[in-house]
Specification:
Layout lengths: L3 H8 L2 H10 L7 E5 L8 E6 L10 E5 L6 E5 L6 E6 L9 E4 L4 E6 L10 E7 L5 E2 L3 E6 L7 E6 L6 E5 L4 E6 L10 E2 L1 E7 L4 E4 L5 E5 L3 E6 L5 E6 L6 E7 L2 E6 L5 E6 L2 H7 L3 H12 L8
């Protein structure tokens, strides 16, 4: 049986995020973090910051948009240099996003469909980190319940691991949840669970799973989970074609397509911490912390 004290201490990694988000003042201000140095990264379309405390913690994973071979890049944000490439043999149809997939792995979202002609889409689970590797990824087929859709955002709930696809409608998008357990032997039917703004190009969960930040080309929107109701929105810095967002500590990293493009850091609103405090993970943490006299931030 798991030690609840260990669970409480481990869950307290949320505290720095909650305190930092409470102090953040969102807006169009940006702070450059690094520039992609690799000439092979020309259409950065997805972004994940690797968590944890090992040698790969804090590294940034990205992927090119449609037209590239099957590969993702691991980048050291201290230098902007690529330190690892994961490749696989089959060329994807239209990769548009990345999402966390457990320690040392990401989900690669082959979910783009500009012409609305695909009968199904795919997510691939691949290992990432320092060093180059050739892999045979785990592939899971997803199918919408109501016909084809174009999508550029995939998110993983940080507590349950459940995947959600957010479509890219012009005026509004739709959120679809994948089954909790993805089958390899047959298509996995998505379920409509919420609404999203129009022209969503990427998204990321808050660390407790109580909220989601979705980005468009010009703005960020915070939605509560699991209701997917809007909480706040704010302007993002000008980017040529902003298609990446990832949670990084108590703020966000945002990226754009283009050769040697720059990755920026932007603040989160105070409502982000307040929204995440209502998450099931935080509710459990509050109970455990109270039981074992552990500190919690106000809220």
């Amino acid at each position: 049986m798991a030690d609840p004290r260990r669970a409480a201490v481990g869950a307290l990694v949320l505290v720095p995020f909650l305190l930092g988000a409470a102090a953040g003042a969102p807006g169009a201000a940006d702070h450059p973090v690094f520039r992609f140095a690799d000439p092979e990264i020309v259409e950065s379309s997805g972004l994940v910051v690797l968590p944890g405390h090992g040698r790969d913690a804090g590294l940034v994973v990205t992927t090119n948009d449609s037209g590239d071979s099957g590969r993702v890049f691991t980048v050291d944000p201290a230098t902007g240099e690529t330190v690892g490439v994961t490749s696989w043999a089959a060329d994807p149809e239209d990769v548009e996003a990345l999402a966390p997939a457990g320690p040392g792995h990401v989900w690669v979202a082959d979910i783009g469909d500009n012409r609305h002609v695909r009968d199904s889409v795919e997510v691939l689970r691949v290992p990432v980190g320092r060093g180059d590797r050739q892999v045979t990824p785990e592939v899971r087929e997803l199918v919408y319940p109501d016909g084809s859709h174009d999508a550029e955002a995939l998110v993983t709930h940080p507590v349950t691991g459940r995947l959600h696809v957010i479509t890219k409608g012009v005026f509004a998008g739709t959120v679809y949840a994948a089954p909790q357990r993805l089958r390899a032997d047959r298509p996995n039917l998505l379920t409509e669970v919420g609404d999203a703004p129009g022209l969503v190009t990427d998204a990321t969960f808050l660390p407790g799973g109580g909220g989601v930040v979705v980005r468009t080309y010009t703005k960020a929107h915070l939605s509560a989970f699991p209701s997917w109701q809007g909480v706040a929105s704010w302007e993002l810095p000008d980017q040529d074609q902003g298609e990446g967002v990832a949670l990084a500590g108590d703020g966000l990293l945002v990226s754009t397509e283009g050769a040697r493009s720059q990755v920026l850091r932007v603040a989160l609103p105070a409502s982000a911490g307040a929204t995440d405090l209502r998450s099931p993970a935080w509710t459990s943490l509050r109970w455990l912390a109270t039981a074992y006299a552990l500190p919690l931030p106000a809220g």
